[in-house]
């Protein structure tokens, strides 16, 4: 026991782990239902991924009016977004606005990490310890740990040797970083890397982009939102939120029901050209079968490769930037603002690591098979141990001391992404095996928290102390997840979506790719059967 460890546990009704958008809503919901709830958060304030990801150019590529809470009419009426796609400072300001408006911080303990959460079957409660030496006890533990919250460094020797400035996209310093006149290198060209490149390329003395796998990125075409638009939106928020719940992406943008080959070739070109000019995810949504029909996917990929060739002036650079060998959108599609144009700047250099791989990081830079690039600044935008990383980062033990990391040694298994067999009264928000990452995370979080609240209410009304999904129901959900996954082209790329970005991690497409609307229908069906897939005590 550490010096600071308190001897008597703090008794609660709910422990919520995380102060991102999922954790904030969970704390609010259960508090308003009259429960004694405490949220635990490692950062010193709310915001989750938007608290940590302060890198230059960080911006959400879901529309701001979509990527915001719908549960509170006051919040959505009082808050106004300034841009169609909000930048990180505005999203963080929004999270703080919500925390102020709903007085949430009093129910959180910040700068505190949960180090273990262990189910006590005799006492019918979770016992969590924190790195501050505190013990918390509560019948329910809500895991709002986020699908993208455990940063991953690249597996390259020599990281500790680098003597220049080293930054990580996922844990960016709060102070401003100056790039002027410096030789800057960046490793990673996923959503984070692309946003950093387009921003830092215009500021640095020289920028060297170490690209292994090129990503697909589409023009964002961001713009300010007019007062008239905001006023109109506020009148229609309730209907809009309802439409979002019926949408496969949990957003407002309609998804076409038209298969690619249902149109003659010239019309397909027109549709794609229009979507490219329109910007945002319109392009992804303009045909219904881009993730199931390989031939359609190939032709759409060719269209985008053509655009890259038109924008990037140097033919060798253009060729290296064109993704090949995996389907378009099988990697998280990015939205950019003049990303490809950045490579036309004389100070921006693409280092093609497929041609010459990175060998090591040295004291002074990055050495590839072609030689060393000296750098003043090195940035890692190398992603996350996603989906399961945060839940497995601490010691979670369920019934009979069973460890979550043992249960998930071959990959995550759960029911609706929320409940895990053998782990009573533990509810994940936006957990693995749900639609996290493929749909609007705030819409998912609201759905999951509301579902958890309905479950807790059901138990209270029936005088039940614990719930656990049956093995049979968990297996059935995983078979449903697999049935959708087996038809999706998403499984054909090596990405964090399938776990292949982390050495030793079990791989496979374990997310629910059937769309948020269908996921929600499954959640609703589980409720209307009186939670028949669960056993109760
Ligand atoms: O991470 P990533 P991210 N040598 O895993 C490269 C969300 N997000 O932080 O593919 C060389 O996508 C790796 O290369 P490769 C969004 O859901 C949203 O960018 O392994 N390169 C890849 O290029 C997104 O999908 C927003 O060959 C190495 C990159 O690092 C998710 O977060 C903004 C390497 C990692 O890309 C994660 O995005 C930001 C090595 N040894 C993030 N190791 C918006 O809303 C890794 N890489 C806009």
Could you walk me through the main structural features you see in this protein, from its secondary elements to its overall organization?
The chain has 537 residues and is α/β, with parallel strands linked by helices. The protein has 15 helices and 22 strands. It has helices at 21-32, 49-52, 73-78, 88-101, 191-200, 227-245, 265-278, 282-285, 294-311, 315-321, 339-342, 404-407, 441-462, 471-485, 516-528, and strands at 10-11, 14-17, 37-40, 108-109, 114-120, 125-130, 135-138, 140-143, 165-168, 183-187, 206-211, 217-219, 334-336, 348-352, 358-361, 365-368, 371-374, 377-380, 395-397, 426-428, 467-469, 534-536. The strands form six sheets. A five-stranded mixed β-sheet has the order 1-7-6-5-19, with no helix packed on it. Helix 5 (191-200) links the parallel strand 10 (183-187) and strand 11. Helix 13 (441-462) runs parallel beside helix 15. The longest helix is centred in the last third of the chain and has 22 residues, at 441-462. It is globular and about 70 Å long. The mean pLDDT is 96. It binds 3-acetylpyridine adenine dinucleotide.
The biggest sheet, with number of strands, parallel, antiparallel or mixed sense and barrel status, is: 5 strands, mixed
Q: Looking across the biggest beta sheet, what order are the strands in?
A: 1-7-6-5-19
Percent helix = 25-40%
What is the overall number of helices? 15
State the secondary-structure class.
alpha/beta
Low-confidence stretches at least 5 residues in length (pLDDT < 50)? none
Number of β-strand runs: 22
List cofactors, ions and other ligands.
Answer: 3-acetylpyridine adenine dinucleotide
Mean pLDDT: 96
Choose one word for the global shape: globular
Strand content is: 15-25%
> What is the alpha-carbon Rg in Å?
23 Å
The N- to C-terminal Cα distance equals: 33 Å
């Amino acid at each position: 026991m550490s010096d600071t460890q308190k001897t008597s546990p703090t008794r609660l009704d709910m422990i919520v782990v995380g102060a991102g958008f999922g954790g904030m809503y969970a704390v609010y919901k259960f508090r308003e239902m009259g429960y004694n709830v405490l949220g635990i958060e490692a950062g010193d304030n709310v915001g989750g991924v938007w608290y940590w990801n302060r890198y230059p150019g960080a911006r959400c590529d879901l529309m701001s009016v979509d990527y915001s809470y719908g549960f509170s009419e006051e919040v959505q009426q009082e808050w106004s977004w300034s841009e169609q796609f909000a930048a990180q400072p505005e999203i963080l300001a929004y999270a703080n606005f919500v925390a102020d408006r709903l007085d949430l911080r009093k129910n959180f303990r910040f700068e505190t990490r949960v180090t273990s959460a262990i189910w006590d079957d005799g006492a019918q409660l979770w016992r969590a310890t924190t790195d501050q030496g505190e013990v918390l006890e509560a019948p329910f533990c809500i895991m709002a740990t986020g699908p993208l919250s455990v940063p991953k460094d690249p597996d390259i020797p020599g990281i500790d040797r680098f003597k220049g400035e080293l930054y990580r996209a996922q844990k960016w310093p709060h102070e401003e970083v100056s790039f002027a006149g410096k030789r800057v290198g960046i490793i990673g060209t996923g959503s984070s890397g692309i946003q950093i490149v387009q921003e830092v390329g215009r500021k640095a003395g020289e920028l060297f982009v170490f690209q292994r796998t090129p990503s697909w990125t589409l023009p964002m075409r961001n713009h300010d939102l007019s007062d008239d638009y905001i006023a109109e939106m506020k009148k229609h928020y309730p209907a809009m939120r309802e439409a979002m719940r019926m949408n496969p992406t949990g957003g407002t943008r309609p998804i076409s029901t038209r298969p690619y080959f249902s149109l003659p070739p010239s019309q397909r070109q027109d549709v794609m050209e229009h979507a490219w000019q329109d910007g945002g995810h319109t392009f992804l949504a303009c045909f219904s079968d881009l993730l199931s029909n390989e031939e359609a996917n190939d032709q759409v990929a060719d269209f985008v490769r053509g655009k890259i060739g038109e924008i990037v002036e140097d033919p060798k650079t253009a060729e290296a930037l064109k993704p090949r060998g995996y389907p378009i959108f099988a990697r998280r599609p990015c939205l950019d603002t003049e990303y490809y144009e950045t490579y036309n700047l004389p100070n921006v250099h693409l280092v093609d690591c497929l041609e010459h791989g990175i060998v090591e990081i040295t004291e002074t830079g990055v050495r590839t098979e072609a030689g060393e690039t000296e750098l003043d600044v090195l940035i890692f935008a190398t992603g996350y141990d996603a989906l399961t990383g945060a839940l497995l980062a601490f010691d979670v033990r369920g019934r009979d001391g069973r460890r979550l990391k043992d249960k998930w040694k071959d990959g995550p298994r759960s029911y609706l992404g929320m409940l895990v067999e053998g782990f009573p009264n533990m509810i994940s928000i936006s957990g693995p095996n749900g639609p996290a990452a493929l749909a609007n995370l705030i819409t998912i979080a609201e759905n999951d928290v509301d579902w958890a609240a309905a479950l807790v209410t059901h138990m209270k009304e029936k005088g039940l102390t614990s719930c656990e999904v049956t093995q049979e129901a968990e297996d059935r959900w995983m078979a449903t997840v697999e049935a959708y996954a087996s038809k999706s082209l998403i499984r054909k790329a090596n990405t964090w979506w399938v776990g292949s970005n982390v050495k030793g991690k079990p791989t496979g497409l374990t997310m629910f790719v059937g769309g948020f609307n269908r996921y929600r229908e499954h959640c609703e069906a589980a409720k209307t059967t009186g939670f028949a897939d669960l056993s109760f005590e």
